[in-house]
């Protein structure tokens, strides 16, 4: 799951470019997508996409759109994640201390299953 603006650059975009050709992956776009962005492009599921380096790659992942507020609180976000039950949760945006707190809460909440909670260093 990546915000439409998050797919424009940074870790979310880099991860997307690595994963977009593999049919076992999916991308969930929450919220409003703007014309001219990668999110808007992939919602229409083209056969291929242009990467940041200008090359193209096949778009083999499934793309889904959901209505979701980027400003949801922990209760809303954790309820959503419980319904989704993803095998991996990657935290890529936020202030470092808050991200650590969120990661610890999610680790506790998902202790009963095999969900991996990952928060790579920014940069």
- Spans of 5+ residues with little confidence (pLDDT < 50)? none
Largest β sheet strand count, sense and barrel closure: 2 strands, parallel
Global outline: globular
What is the chain-wise order of helices and strands?
Answer: HEHEEEHEHE
Task: Kindly state the number of beta strands.
Answer: 6
Q: End-to-end span in angstroms?
A: 20 Å
Radius of gyration: 15 Å
Strand content: 15-25%
Return the structural class.
alpha/beta
Summarize the amount of helix as a percent range. 25-40%
Treating each run of at least 4 consecutive H or I residues as one helix, how many helices?
4
- Mean pLDDT over the full residue set: 86
Strand order of the largest sheet: 1-4
Helix-strand layout with pairing:
Layout: H1 10-19, E1 26-30, H2 38-43, E2 48-50, E3 56-58, E4 62-66, H3 74-84, E5 88-90, H4 96-109, E6 116-118
Parallel strand pairs: 1-4, 5-6
Antiparallel strand pairs: 2-3
Give me some keywords for this one.
alpha/beta; two-stranded parallel sheet; two-stranded antiparallel sheet
Describe the 3D structure.
- This protein has helices spanning 10-19, 38-43, 74-84, 96-109; strands at residues 26-30, 48-50, 56-58, 62-66, 88-90, 116-118.
- The relative contact order is 0.16.
- Strands 1-4 form a two-stranded parallel ribbon. Strands 2-3 form a two-stranded antiparallel ribbon. It has a two-stranded parallel sheet with strand order 5-6.
- With 123 residues, the protein is an alpha/beta fold.
- The protein starts with 9 loop residues before the first helix and ends in a 5-residue tail after the last strand.
- Helix content is 33%, strand content 18%.
